[in-house]
Amino acid sequence: MSVLNGISVSVGPVLFKAACPDCRSRFELAAGALRLAIGGSRRTTFYSFTCPECGSAVRKPAGERIVELLTGGGVRTLRLHSTV
Ligand SMILES: [Zn+2]
After folding, report:
1. The organism sits in which domain of life (predicted)?
2. How far is the CA of 55 from the centre of ligand 1 (A)?
């Protein structure tokens, strides 16, 4: 059960606001609609999604805060470069 010591924690679906550079529409995406790729440098760290309006694949650079936000929200993360 999800009740722990009398306290139940409900986690709602996390939605991320995004905008499409192609058709300029704005929408909210669930964590499952986003992908995050973390590379070895800032240039190779980005998040991507498919625009629900026009269907184009959008890829945007992800800064540290965005990476934190997305990983915290349960977005699937792909590590392109493993640091040893
Ligand atoms: Zn679009």
Report:
1. Bacteria
2. 6
